[in-house]
Model the fold of this input.
Amino acid sequence: SDDYRLVSRKWKVNPTVIDFGDGLRVQEGELTIMAGPCSIENEDQIEKTIQHLVANNVRFMRGGVFKPRSSPYSFRGLGLEGLKLFYDMCRAHGIKIVTEVMQVSQIAPMEPYTDVFQVGARNTQNFNLLDELGKVDKPVLLKRGISGTIDELLYSAEYIFSGGNEKLMLCERGIRTYETASRNTLDLNAIPILKEKTHLPVIVDPSHGIGIREYVEPMALAAIMAGADGIIYETHEKPEEAASDGAQTLSFTESERMIKKMRKVFDLR
Ligand code: PEP
Ligand code: MN
Done:
């Protein structure tokens, strides 16, 4: 059959657990929090973010060094040198990093310095990239395509899983609709639907999902109540100075408040 099969809950009833060692797991029944800037910018920014995460017991830092920008004139990221700095600084504090891989040729050089390969919304159906990530022994966070259906996301997941990489997480990050009042439309519906269809952890990105700083927190809390296994979002010491996505980025004060609320809401489930 040409249906997706291996990522289906019909094939594997038990939810997938991704073990990072040191007692750190992404799994159903626990709330995973991943936070950090849209783009890695410099050593000071990484250091300040690590301090913020450690103070709040957050074990994953996100941050891009290869950035998929709509305009070629926008900041494109620090590249591999930035990744090495990011990885080394985080490792010294026991923090795992989540960072986007944009093309097949980046996988091998990135691998020693990456804990989670993020596949961005513009690459969800880059099937050659998915095939190659299927051969990698590192977890993958697969984002939903900008105009992708839930089934298309699951077919893309099947590429990676069937290639042999079962350390896979899905990410709802908002889809393009006719609505222009927000950057994207966070599809809360996708959360219970994905949780029923697949055994893979479902992580939600409210930052790209709505694109407006003030509304990131309510969307994160709603996603948790809808059944999300984790939240990934953007935070920066000075959001207004961020190299990318500042308008949807939380200050550390806002981030800390949201972390506390997310944990409270998760306990209500
Ligand atoms: C990002 O995480 O900064 C990003 C570019 O996300 P997406 O691929 O969902 O747009
Ligand atoms: Mn971003």
